[in-house]
Amino acid sequence: MTKAHHLIACLCIAWIGLGAQAQVVRCTDAATGKVTYTDGKCTGNAAVREVEPRKTPEEIQLEREQAAEALARKQQRLQAENTAAETEALRNAQRDRARPAKSQDYARSPECARSRRNLDVVLSSSSGATYEQSLRAEAAQRQVDLDCLGPEGYAEVEKARAARPATPTPVVVVPQPYHHPIRPTPTPVPPPAPAPKKFTQCNVFRCYDSQGNSYPR
After folding, report:
1. SS3 for 201?
2. pLDDT in tens, 65-94
3. 3-state DSSP call for residue 187?
């Protein structure tokens, strides 16, 4: 759009909006070729060309009524579009609520992968079937069931565990340190008392036994 066309559009809009009844005239100067627009008369030797003829009051009123009807139709169309959009949004919300929720794939979750790695670590670090290691392995297995099966699957597994016969709790015997048996100290046996000597003869100074031994008296 050229500047002249833009000026014509602005003048027409201003004229219609204000309800003016003056006509728009295009003036072209014969010497310079300069073009001007006016609602009066052209000056000098300018060539005159009527751009917008003068309108009667009836034509102006008709244009106003047509503009008002067009505006009302536009408002009705916008209101109908808004109502249709709200109805569609409500229908989509109801359909989403009625649609069954998509089940979550717990087996592919990061929590499941982490629990499986922890169970592998617990099982690989078990050096023997001790009671403490059995408890750790059981706790790690329950965590895997919860993270990989979800709450509902975990509840079913726990229900199945409860239906199994109870396993007696193993009794762990702690070995005591070995002590050598204490042997009593034998009581020394006194040597047998010597048999009393039997003297056969005594004098003032000595005595003699039956074997010929002499003893001071």
Report:
1. strand
2. 999 999 999 999 999 999 999 999 998 888
3. coil
User: Which residue in this structure is represented by tokens 């009807």?
Assistant: 69
Which sequence spans correspond to the domains of the chain?
3-60, 106-163
Residue 4 sits at φ, ψ, to 5 deg, of -65, -45
Give the whole-angstrom CA distance, residue 49 versus residue 105: 80
Cα torsion through 197, 203, 206, 210, rounded to 10: -30
Question: Which strands make up the sheet holding 35-38, listed edge to edge?
Answer: 35-38, 24-28, 47-52
Angle subtended by helix axes 110-124 and 131-163, to nearest 10: 130
Spell out the residues 6+ positions from residue 35 whose beta carbon is closer than 8 angstroms to its own. Answer: 4, 26, 27, 28, 29
Where on the phi/psi map is residue 86: left (φ > 0), alpha (ψ -120 to 50), or beta? Answer: alpha
Say if CB 37 and CB 7 are below 8 A apart: yes
Contact of 147 with 114, CB cutoff 8 Å: yes
Using DSSP's 3-state secondary structure scheme, residue 39 falls into coil
Rg (C-alpha) for the chain, rounded Å, is 64
Instruction: Quick: pLDDT tens for 24-38.
Output: 888 888 888 888 888
Query: Using CA atoms, how far apart are residues 65 and 16, in angstroms rounded to an integer?
Result: 12
Angle CA 6–10–11, to nearest 5: 115
